[in-house]
## 1
Amino acid sequence: MNNNASDNFEYISQLLTALTTESRANRQETDKIELLLKRVSKQCAISYESLGSEVTDETLKNYNKQNKPSKISRLVNENYDLIYQIEQQRYINSKVTLLIQNITEHFLSIKNFIKEQKYVREQDLDNFVYENFESQIVILESSIQKLDEKSNTSSSNLSCIIRQLQTTCREIDWSIIPRGTIEHKQLIKHLQELDENYGIKLVDDSTLESISTT
């Protein structure tokens, strides 16, 4: 059954490509028809706008009656809607994947900075780093893999990781950070980019301003 589902999805993917090509061709034909209508209106001394004037209710009713979509037409339209939704979901999934990858890179940089500067006191550094950063990165990487396999993601997991990192950052004694080093500048950069690009605040504004002062 899974194989059939995979084959069906592949077939739909091929239909998407064909639909895109057909849409471009239809657009070109529409432009040609519009040009012909303009020529006809000019030859008949009728304004082009009048050709598109509002029709009477009776005319519209007769037209709708004669052009009532058949069952096949409705199914085709429903399939087109489904194809559009699938294409839209693929686009969203690609953006979510990129977002998770970018956030993971920022988390890795912050983790490495904290590890190099040895901010954690009275704890085993390796256990602290693993519990608060590496395990979360494993979850993120697992989410990326599942997203590629199943074309979906869980925003709740990402929110949980962000909250844990915010709690960790609140427990750090930022006053002992060496100022003016390359690592210090990179830390500030990552904190600011997470805030500006993704709206993720690992520290509050007053703390960020304090640790940004050289």
Note: The radius of gyration is 29 Å.
## 2
Amino acid sequence: MQPAETTQAPTVIFRPAAQRFHSRLDWLDSRHSFSFAGHVDPDWMGFGPLRVINDDTIAAGRGFGMHPHRDMEIITVMVDGELSHKDSMGHSAVIHAGEVQRMSAGTGITHSEMNNSTESCRLLQIWIEPEERGIPTDYEQKSFPIDTQWTPLISPQSNNGAMRIARSVHLWRARPAQTSQLTLPSTGGPLLWLQVISGTVNLNGSDAVPERLQQGDGLGFHRMDAVIDDLSAADAEADILLFALP
């Protein structure tokens, strides 16, 4: 007699914006999707190699002074305003809204991130654990026109206009339309994480996922569970990131 087959419910990890960790200084308002600095929760240490998603708003004329990093792939997605960057590799640049910065901290770097403008700025800083420790340091910065379809920002190879990262990780950005459905890319690893930058997104899928994601919400799931058929914008501000992770 054969044992009866059982159907396992898909594993979906929902991180509502309001439940993120919160750090507040007189010049910084930062929301952390995962454990960061003094905020530590063993249930929220990351998602696969995705270690940090920090949603930072930095006051005018303020910022992070020189500080070190090592053995981490660091991605900064500028949402609003601009940020001045200087590092120990000799780079000095201003990152504007619509641009993405990628750094391989590898053997060790120090850098500063200052908002030298007269207006506050907003960014998402993302940390991804590299495949290997002690890799050479590297820097790249690029502007990406964002479409209603998935725009590749990061990939393991420098193709389709994406910047290369030292891990089998893909990152896309889209501003989906309200009048059409956007399906998920078929490339990349089995773990998927959706992060809403702005606005509200409608999800069409199984009962395991919320019907909508709002600004700051995150959702992690396994590609094979097929919990999302497609998505669309619920408003004109909808702006999202999608990670595919090993």
Note: The chain has one domain: 12-245.
## 3
Amino acid sequence: MTERRSAAADPQPGRAGRGAPLDAQTSLRSAALWAPLGVALLVASAASDRVGALQVGLLLAVVAGLWQVVRSRAGHGLSARVPIVLVVPLSVLGAVQMPTLPAVEPPPPAAATTGLWLSHEEVMALPTSGAGWEQVRADATGDWGDADISDQKSDHDVKTLAGALYATRTGDDAMRAQVTRAIEDAVGTEDGGRTLALGRNLVSYVIAADLVGYRTPAFEDWLREVRHDELDGRTLVSTHEDRPNNWGAHAGASRIAAARYLGDTADLEAAADVFRGYVGERNVYDDFDFEGRKWQADPDAPVGINPPGATRDGVDVDGVLPDDQRRCGCNLDESPKEADYVWEALQGLTVQARLLERAGHPAWAWGDRALFRAVRWLEDAELPAEGDDTWVPALVNDAYQTSFDGEKAPQIGKNMGYTTWITEG
């Protein structure tokens, strides 16, 4: 009688019978096929924006391959076909049914910072010694003159700001009261002036009011209205939106300060768009009224600040402010002899940038770091800040961590000052 042998005891060559140990070479070949393939496909699918059954199947493929290796080395039986049979349909199914996740949203803008210019805590962290502080103290305790917003050369506004900084840092209530009276004295004095004067003089009063906590319905009503009052045929807002030069730059600084103080989010966002257009982002705003275009990198697409790498007739104009640089009285192929109007525009633009930054906007980065490029061009052209522009480099250096030439106690400007002190914190 012929002995009947068990299939388990006599497996076919190259195949593992039921209950028999898995052939190591077969396991390793299967693992070598599926594991790398699974890994590669997993990486590819992870790089896309799709997830689902495909990735589950591929993960099983990797696990199956590695599992076979482990089991074969441990001497346990496991059919190579089992995980593969499960994996292949899942992988194919996943290839057909791959749900798409919603597009990843960009991160929200940074939260607005307390304080238009500085918070109380930031002021209290600043030193009460050194050249910067001594300038604040001297101007705060000195003669401020008379309030007159219509006078575009007035410095009563900036010295009122010095008083607010001093009162906040020292807790001097008498100085705080003096600041309040100065702000109240300024209300209504814009009549008879131009929007250039209003743009230069308003911003420091608003920041001073914020620092000392001055807020009354009458002041808020005036501030709300003065932005739209017509002065010599223009308003503060229209000047900001029409003039891509120092007029518009100063108007923008005062407009932004007022909007932030009043909590006027709609006007703040509108002003931010104008700033972006000024620094070269024409896709955001391009309704300026440009005049001479000699210094424009592209006369058909004029901007407030020329773009990176810009040239005109072979001349480097990257960072040039064309609508103010045209007033230098020089040609492109000549070395400019002065840049007074350019630096004045930067007085307004740098104040806008800091105010916008504290409102949650990355203004210093807009226009491919336009303000950095503007100051760099001026320095390369050997046209450094002078006189009442010398406070500007401190703000730029603080924003970009640069070292443009500045002074320890620079002269106050037409709309701002004391920047070496406020950037010491």
Note: The longest strand covers residues 311-312.
## 4
Amino acid sequence: MTSVEVVERRRPPSSLVRNDARIMGAVVAVLADAGWAGVTVASVARAAGLSPRPVQDRFPDRWAMAVGAWQQQVGPALEGALLELLESAGLEDDRLPRDRPAGPVLQLRAALESALDAAGLRHLIVGQLPEDLDDPLLEMNLALESALDAAGRADLMSLRAAGPSADWLANALGAFLRPGAELRAAAELLVVSAFNDDLAETVGSEVAHRVAAWCHPTGEHPEAAVSRAYLISIALGLLLSRTRQGAADLDLRDEARHLLDAFKNQSKPAVLPATRAEHLDDFLGFDTGDASLDALLRGTMEEVGRVGYEGATTAAIGRASGRSEGLVFARYPSKVELFVDATRRQHARNWRANEVFHQGIAAVHGPGIAEAVVIREFQRPDLRGYRAISLEQVRMALHDERLREVQWGELELLVAQALAEDPNWAAAGTPAHLHFSVAIGLGVTVLPILAPEAWLLPYDVVTVPLDEG
């Protein structure tokens, strides 16, 4: 029985249904706070206030818990945040389905809304209540949390009422830069879905079909699809780069204005250079001068790309390297030290190779065209393995200080060198502008998980006006 079948089998009533809701809430909390590595039957049981037995009876492994969490909480939360994002920029498409199935506790919902209406607060929670939960107590709790959250951000409703604007867009992007538990959990599950077919199938069927429709390259209005794809990529990149120093304090309004201007003033699609990013074809090419070490580093990344960091054992790394497990511990005190070193060496090579590739195209065709080509290359279907490894490195850096230093240290060094060569280097700009550049670089590698055909979009219709603006 697959993880999807385990989750989708008929649920028993009463206390077991309530346990399901508690377990799913606990899975989300553990994912948000400890990451995928923290999700075990024992940790989820503790967070849910249950013994391990009912958790394991209902969800026999962590992948089944991940599938359930995505279906019940994480996927709907991500979809809702993305829809808010598109609406804030005037990019929603009324022709695409937006309805969600009603939940089984409509009477409770009506009573709650009536009480809030009588208190003059109902307007604050319109559109905020979840509609597909099975536990009335959990639904009431989440509804009250939504009401309190909305009351603390009462201006959001006025932003919505006023229509698309830089302020509303900045607010919607801020939900990804300063995410709640469900979006933090979404970041974890999006990345690790590369390592489990059941979770990948669930992500694809629950959210990706809608994102793929928003960003489809052969639709009636491909220019709008480009804007959606670019904006969603920025949001997903903000979600993954949220631990970069100073990121949480950024004011996003100026960047939101630039985006809206570019979306309104798109250029005509150009025939993009067919230049191939050949350095991505051999992104695991280590050259330390030590053949055994090169093989070990490459084998580490290949195994991580196959099963994820947590699934990669030192024995499997040894086999993937064509060496023994003993070589791992002869060279490194632990698996994490090996992974940190492999990541450091790979970043030092790839950050610079990416910049050289971009500069070479920009020198001939301009920065806007160069960025469009880079996006196309990073989203190529044949680079799924590259994206899986890169995103796993980013995900791990959310939770490990050493990897975070590697992840962002190389970037900061590259920025410093570029500014030393050209003090007016446009990519640096303001701190928010630089961070948006970082976010789009990460986000375009996430988008193919949700919209595999987005690599065919004419991104230059947005990147050129952004560069010229």
Note: The radius of gyration is 23 Å.
